[in-house]
Specification:
Blueprint: E1 9-15, E2 18-27, H1 36-40, E3 47-58, H2 60-76, E4 79-81, H3 87-99, H4 112-146, H5 153-163, H6 168-190, H7 199-237, H8 240-246, H9 251-289, H10 294-302, H11 307-333, H12 339-371
Parallel strand pairs: 2-3, 3-4
Antiparallel strand pairs: 1-2
């Protein structure tokens, strides 16, 4: 004969401002379960600790009870201590909480120093994850240099087409408009001093050194970086990446390296193309607004723009390409195994890429100024 199931039960122990809840029995959605309001009995604890050592079989009934306790803690500003819960249960509780996100305030019972310490540990952990991923990608590229015949060149060529040739229309439009905007802005100031011709210098230097690479990188961060994150995040949700690892195939070698190499190779070419299109946009404004002929515009621009300006822009473009590729692939591999996780990974990839692009551009500005480039 089968033993009769033990009904779900809970005991409460109060110690000062802390309330310890010990759960036991079998928690089934078809059976009765304790109510949190009855267990609390009007008390207003500052800390609630939950232990499930005596729980037998359980289903969503236990999860709903814990969610009810956690939500009350958020509303009351109390600290919910679920460290004693099994890892699987904590994961499911976190997913349930994220799916029911509202304007409920977060826990504020932690002290300032504890909050700062927790944030510091999270930043340190994220930094380690980024460093580890960059190291894996570096080793993968070293392996490519040593054994190029084992690299998936077909995938790389496909990605080069997607992030290069397919991006030409949007890059052309953005670059042309940026060149026009620079020319209009420069004309507002320079024409007051009779220096209309120097609009060519402004547009040429700005596009070659800064705007060509920067605008192309931002466009690809929103277009290609997000696509990488969404694709890899969807593969992770479908357990395709786990299948590769089970077969002994490195996801970095199989999925990340072709995308990273393709973006690194195509980014300088797109940046150079964007510079040319931007200069044409500025030339069109100079001709139509300032009555500067294209030949005069071109000759004046060549007096200030030299090879160092072009090379500095290409160096930035290569760096930005690496950043966009790393950010997209990293966030894709870190995505949660859900549709919402894929969307969050794509958003995070764009934000991360743009942040590091701006930081890298500022660093290059300082370094180039020190070197006199």
């Amino acid at each position: 004969m089968c033993a009769a199931p033990i009904a779900a039960c809970a005991s409460v122990e109060a110690a000062g401002d802390e309330l310890t809840v010990a759960l036991g029995g079998d928690w089934r959605i078809t059976g009765p379960r304790p109510a949190w309001e009855e267990l609390r009995a009007g008390r207003e604890p500052q800390r609630v600790t939950v232990r499930v050592g005596g729980v037998g079989k359980w289903d969503s009934s236990l999860l709903l009870f814990l969610f009810e306790v956690q939500q009350w803690c958020r509303m009351a500003g109390a600290y919910f201590d679920g460290e004693a819960l099994p890892e699987k249960l904590r994961t499911m509780l976190g997913q349930l909480a994220r799916s029911h996100e509202t304007s409920v305030p977060f826990d504020r019972s932690q002290s300032f120093m504890e909050t700062v310490g927790t944030a510091t540990l999270q930043i340190w952990q994220k930094g380690r994850e980024i460093a580890y991923f960059v190291g894996e990608c570096t080793l993968s590229l070293v392996k490519l240099a040593r054994q190029p015949h084992k690299f998936r060149w077909r995938d790389c060529l496909h990605e080069m087409q997607q992030c290069g040739a397919m991006a030409l229309p949007i890059v052309s439009l953005i670059s042309f408009l940026v060149g026009m905007t620079l020319a209009y802005t420069g004309a507002l100031v320079l024409r007051q001093y009779g220096g209309d011709i120097y609009v060519a210098d402004l547009v040429g230097v700005a596009m070659a050194r800064e705007m060509g690479a920067l605008m192309t990188a931002i466009v690809l961060a929103g277009r290609t970086g997000a696509a990488y994150a969404a694709h890899l995040g969807n593969m992770k949700a479908n357990e395709e990446i786990d299948a590769l690892s089970t077969l002994g195939i490195s996801p970095v070698d199989f999925l990340v390296a072709p995308r990273l190499l393709a973006l690194t190779l195509m980014m300088p070419l797109l940046s150079l193309y964007a510079c040319c299109v931007g200069i044409v946009g500025g030339m069109a404004v100079a001709w139509s607004v300032l009555d500067i002929l294209p030949v005069a515009f071109w000759v004046e621009m060549l007096t200030i723009v030299d090879l160092s300006d072009v090379l500095s822009g290409l160096v930035k473009a290569v760096t930005f390409g690496v950043i966009v590729g790393l950010a997209g692939c990293l966030r894709g591999l870190q995505a949660d195994r859900s549709a919402a996780g894929v969307g969050q990974a794509a958003t995070s990839a764009v934000v991360t890429a743009i942040l590091f692009i701006i930081v890298a551009d500022a660093v290059y500005a300082v370094v180039f100024d020190i070197l006199g480039i």
